[in-house]
Amino acid sequence: MLKVTNLSAGYGDIIAIRDFSFSVEPGQIHAFVGANGAGKSSTLMCLMGLVEQKSGSIQMDTKDISNEQIEGRITAGLAIVPEGRRIFPDLSVRENLMVGGHIVPTSVMIAGIEMVYEFFPRLSERQTQAAGSLSGGEQQMLALGRALISQPKILIVDELSLGLMPIIVDECYEVLKKLKSEGIGILLVEQNTERALSVADNVSALEAGNLFWSGTSAQARANKSLTERLMGVT
Ligand code: ATP
Q1: pTM score > 0.85 for this model?
Q2: Were 6 and a residue from 56, 144, 165, 230 both cysteine, which residue would form a disulfide, CB within 3.0 to 4.6 Å?
Q3: To 10 degrees, the CA torsion angle through 70, 181, 22, 104?
Q4: Are the beta carbons of 47 and 4 closer than 8 angstroms?
Q5: How far is the centre of ligand 1, averaged over its atoms, from the C-alpha of 229 (Å)?
Q6: For residue 50, what are the contacts with CB-CB under 8 A and spacing of at least 6?
Q7: How far is the CA of 11 from the centre of ligand 1 (A)?
Q8: pLDDT tens digit string along 197-214?
Q9: Phi and psi dihedrals of 17, rounded to 5?
């Protein structure tokens, strides 16, 4: 469904990722793993049109979206939970969710908000509360919920577990598993390699802007030299 071919992306003269190909199918979790600076976040941001694509192609279904603005990419079925959450602290929980739905019809947005409240009852209880006063875990739930409002086919998630208590991370991952079971494809960047390998179907391992290994997560877990290399960098 999402097919990326020979993607290179970066910032001016800096190439953050080189010649990277991967795909994400419906109901599948694909994880990018690797050290800081490997190019994981830059790739995700490039998929959304927020980092410059230097070459290659990004296809959703059969459509090349390489030249689309972010709105066109959301309409094509992509949505991102960015690193650091980027919620609007002065807006209420409900208003933050409405921001996530600003390009979809109102009926879709309202249905999306109700769905998010079902996933995260804690957000429902705090609908009118300023998002900045939520706990870190609740803010992550809000960021995840906001990305779901446009009913994406592919959900892109950058560093879900960063700075969160394990119990909250478990809760967020349960939601990812539920989304997967509903046929949503998930592209995941996760510093916690063990967690990434435990949940992913497929894995791309990156280092300094290059793909150095790809395969199923079962193959990754069985590959001792790979896991040692990956665990050494978390
Ligand atoms: P991390 O886990 O630390 O976020 P990452 O694998 O996501 O690592 P990126 O953040 O994509 O890696 O960084 C890839 C390369 O792009 C690095 O060399 C980084 O210095 C560079 N880079 C990232 N953001 C910018 C930017 N805004 N301007 C210039 N270079 C950048």
Answers
A1: yes
A2: 56
A3: -10
A4: yes
A5: 20
A6: 70
A7: 9
A8: 999 999 999 999 999 999
A9: -145, 140
